[in-house]
Amino acid sequence: MLRPRVIVCLDVKDGRVVKGTQFKDLRDVGDPVALARRYEAEGADEIVYLDVSASKEDRGTLLDVVRRTAETLFIPLTVGGGVRSSDDIGPLLRAGADKISVNSAAVSNPELLSVGAERFGSQCIVASIDAAHEGDVFRCYTHGGSRATELDAVAWAEECVERGAGEILLTSIDRDGARTGYRLDLTRAVADAVTVPVIASGGAGEAAHLRDAFLEGHASAALVAGILHDGLTTVGALKHDLSAWGIDVRPSSGNGSAMGTDLAGGGAL
Amino acid sequence: MTERPRNDGGDADLTLRVALFDYGAGNLHSLAKALDAAGASVTVTSDWSEALAADALVLPGVGAFGQAAAALPDDRGPIRTALEEGLPCLGICLGMQLFFDRSDESDGHGIGLVAGEVLHVEADVVPHMGWNDVETEDDPLFDGIDGLVAYYANSYVCAPDDDGPIIARSTYGAGTFAAGVRRTNAWGVQFHPEKSSHQGRRIIGNFVREATRIATSARPGTRR
């Protein structure tokens, strides 16, 4: 049985986890390596780092964070943000990322997906799509939701998969940060149209929203960020509720943190 | 690499020398660290003679079949012989698939240690991505693990000609497939133990423990 996944997203800038609204008013909330490990111990199924650094010079810092994370994290790590060409993918994978998510650069250069999948395998290429509801369709946006494109989200998702993307990270701009639930019509439209797993993103406010993303949105995974970082809930509490409703998430395990502790001496913290 | 303290209360002071084979792509950090934390001394190498001279060999799970097959020496004989004669080996995902001769994924030949082939996953959603239940048989690799749920990221699975080598099974899409195989001391797992949190690390620890036991009994032996 394949378990629906709960994925935790951390926004990383200059080597630190930051939190803000719409990429503004960013505040430092901690060390990504320590936070990622904590979320693994709580039962997170995967971690996503979204690099929100403004400049290209910060890439070295990001690679260092990825390297230090991979040495102590034993669940999959996806890294996104600022991937401009296929040459950016290799260094991130070698540094320790398991998957790379690509957004704006794939829109301006769809070949990036084909080349990335050919060179590194579909399983490590994630197409990240930001979409907003307009009339009868969902329009894709790039550059952190600031630039509209001519692309329809469902059609673009299908093209991404055709080109080799092994997973779709689908964010509803309408719901991002709203905590009123995932945009289920968007999630379901894309999940039903493609043959790869879809990660629902944008809008998680409580466990019931994750349940709806799996059952009604047909998502394979749900991305959670703000409500965890703000301490409103924990991965363990979300999974507890989901299990109680009959959603077969991977159990959060008590000895995960114990195993993490014995590694601390060998880690880079 | 530096000497590491032993991982358990074994009866010999042998630090297992593990060769982690690098086909030239992907993330080896987590796997190297998990082996290291289990008490092994890890060398990452792309040199087969160096790899076969170690106490144990690990074939990681990153890349494509054809590309990894191209990284095998033209003569598969020495690798197959070493594994048939008991060199401890852990093949992960693609590394397990290399135990077989051929794959749907691409041209090229694997090691041919296990009879069978590698087939495309039959399911509505491919890759098979995420955490899946694994039914394990009684094998030292799974010591201390109850109710394994492991992380998968693959579009191809192994189909041995007969059930003999199968030590674990998972069900996804159209059917049940070999989640783990074993021949002599070569273990293959289709999932990623290095990404399967504490249960996966337990499996890597079990491998290091078993390989250490085997290497200890072989030393001083003819193999080295």
Question: How does this model look, in words?
Answer:
The complex is a heterodimer of chains A (269) and B (224). Chain A has 269 residues and is of the alpha/beta class. Chain A has one domain: Aldolase class I (TIM Barrel, Alpha-Beta Barrel). Chain A is 36% helix and 28% strand. Chain A has helices spanning 32-42, 59-70, 89-95, 104-108, 111-120, 153-162, 184-193, 207-215, 226-229, 235-244, 255-263; strands spanning 2-3, 5-13, 16-21, 24-30, 46-51, 77-80, 99-102, 125-134, 137-142, 147-152, 167-172, 198-201, 221-224. In chain A, strands 2-5-6-7-8-11-12-13 form an 8-stranded parallel barrel, surrounded by 7 helices. Chain A starts with a strand and ends in a 6-residue tail after the last helix. Mean pLDDT of chain A is 90; it is low at 254-269. Chain B is an alpha/beta fold. Chain B has a single domain, classed as 3-Layer(aba) Sandwich (Rossmann fold), CATH 3.40.50.880. Helices cover 25% and strands 29% of the residues of chain B. Chain B is built from 6 helices and 12 strands. Chain B is globular, with a radius of gyration of 16 Å. Chain B starts with 16 loop residues before the first strand and ends in a 6-residue tail after the last helix. The A-B interface holds A 1-5, 40, 45, 67, 70-76, 90, 93-99, 119-124, 166-167, 195-197, 220-221, 250-251, 253, 255-256, 258-260, 262-263, 266 and B 25-27, 29-30, 33-34, 36-37, 62-64, 124-133, 147, 149, 151, 153-155, 171-172, 192, 194-202.
